[in-house]
Specification:
The chain has 325 residues and is an alpha+beta fold. It has six domains: 47 residues, no CATH class; 31 residues, no CATH class; 31 residues, no CATH class; 31 residues, no CATH class; 38 residues, no CATH class; 94 residues, Immunoglobulin-like (Sandwich). It is built from five helices and nine strands, in the order αααααβββββββββ. β2 and β3 form a beta hairpin.
Length: 325
Amino acid sequence: MGTLYVPTEILQGQQSTVSMNKNFADLQIALVDTVSRCGAAPNQINTTLDMNSQRIINLPPTPLTALEAVSKAYVDALALGGSPTLQATQVTYDDTVAQTGNTTAQSALDGLDLRVDAIELGAPGELPIAANVTFDNTASGLVATNVQTAIDEVDLAVDANTSGVSTNDSRITNLEAITHVNSFFGRTGAVVPESSDYTATQVLFDPSTTILTSTTAQDAIEEVALLTGVLTPGSEGSFTIPASGLIIKWGVTGNVTGTGTVAHNFPVAFPNSVFQVVTGSTVETGSGNSWPSVTVKSLSGFTVTISSLGIGSSTSAATYIAIGN
């Protein structure tokens, strides 16, 4: 503590104002250094407190911390092997988990009692009333905040949306027991799915392990078809790759006797352009040798000249491969 307050002697004249101001300042310091009965800080003793053989009375019946003074009654109870009475209001309550706002055992128990009373239990042995039981709607997306309204809300949703039960749900094992089913094509009631109830567009496809981008079976099949191409077999055939538009045609021209020229029309014309027409070996009747060469090509066909070293009236025809789009 500071020194005791000793007022300065007030003189007359101008010095009296200075002395008064100093006295007020010293008095303020002295008041701060005293112990406050109302608990104003700093309210602590900074040196040994000598009670001069005087008593301290009216201590709390039970100490709360190891640094508190105890009463003679508390010590006597311990000496006799008893247990000093501990008030619930004197026991600190850790509210970290419960988050109730209570800080003592007494207030925590009172709050718990009020919450139990709020549930409004019925007669002994009966369950709580559903309307008075809190419901957490965070995960469900429901609006209800108690069990009763949550059940009612779910019941209304089921009644209003009978098609909400999916017949392809793997958790449903007894489809014949379902009484509210709408198939894709409108069949209702206790129905078992039939092949006619579904189309490839309604079947999901996972493209994650493929090079495809389709997400339904229908689109996936069509995408594969575009990538692999369409074959038109036959002696005058073709192979079309829709994804790129590339078309390959093949076949055999008409016959030429000796040396001559023959025009050949494709069964189906190229829609855009002809890149190349390549002739292969000739198909000959009789003796001799011949070789073909293309002289004119167009979207609809080409002209080939077959030169022959044949003997007599031998005939020949040219095989070909045409590429275009």
